[in-house]
Amino acid sequence: MKTRLITFLLVVLTSATAFADLKQLNKTIAADKAANADVYQAMDELRNQAQLMDAQKRGPIAVIGPMLEAVGPEIRLALAEDLLKDQPFSGDSATVRRGWRVGILHALGRSRDVQFRDLYTHVMRTESDSDVVRAASSAMGKLLDDEAASTLISLASADTPNAPAILAGMGTCRRAVVANYLAGRLTAAKTKEDVLRATLALRDVANSWAWQTKLVSASGEGDASRDAAAKALVNKLGASAIYEKELVKALLIVNSPKASSFVQQAMKGASKDGQERLKRAQARLGKNPLN
Question: Where are the domains of the chain?
Fold first, then answer.
């Protein structure tokens, strides 16, 4: 009984904090709605379109984000309001809801608008669908600032059901502090799920293509991020046979100039099997198409 009460109080307090953080955004939405009522009325048509797209989808969810993004920036606050209201769709709506909410977060995240920061935090704290949580984490990451990095690391480190999905999506926050955090998570990972999740997130945060773009490279943290990721990937490869192909693929995508030297260092303390894995990785690195 005592444990249940504590859990209930924590949920209430977390929800109260999340809604308090949304106070300013709700004010902004209210003002925008008063000035642009027609935009909000158009949401019904967009929701209907989402249901049609779900019926025709070829993957697990409909790809709705590009459609919402194409409408234009004038729809963003209306999308934020819809995300908060979370009104049900008709019929068997689980996949419609998932695709719709992931699509909204895709469109808002691509805007890199800091006014939606608290909205992303709210979704990561309260959403029950892991795909939606991951999309909120990815949207937060695209802000690329210290506050986004700090929030993501804090939420990914918490002992909550949503923490794994937050970790899976935070690779879009391409900052050295996030790369170092994910490197630590990979080093500590024991289960197949944890190894794969951390590997894919590291591959994302240290993606060499992304670090060539002007927006991402502006921090000047590209080399440090790629080196931290490569070292963790190499060390995991030498220590464990779990997801060897994914670890090597991530190494190729990260494409750190120091990867080969990391392999040589890891060879010294690796087992015979580990050394064989590292040799295979070294051969792949020597033929990396990115070079």
Answer: 1-173, 174-291
Q: Who's near 65: CB < 8 A, 6+ residues apart?
A: 102, 103, 104, 105, 106, 107, 110
Classify residue 43 as exposed, middle or buried by CB count within 10 Å of its CB (0-12, 13-18, 19+). middle
Cβ-contact 277, 237 below 8 angstroms: yes
pLDDT reading at 133 higher than 80: yes
Find the helix or strand (DSSP H, E) in which 20 lies: helix 2-21
The Cβ-side half-sphere exposure at 192, using a 13 Å CA radius, reads 5
pLDDT at position 12, please? Answer: 37
Is the overall model pTM greater than 0.85, yes or no?
yes
Largest CA distance in the chain: 69
pLDDT in tens, 259-275: 999 999 999 999 999 99
pLDDT band at 21 (very low <50, low <70, confident <90, very high): confident
Alpha-carbon distances, residue 263 vs 197, 286, 287 (angstroms)? 22, 12, 15
Element (H, E) at 281: helix 272-286
Question: What is the sign of the dihedral through the CA atoms of 99, 121, 76 and 201?
Answer: negative
Selection from 242, 243, 236, 240 nearest residue 273 by Cα: 240
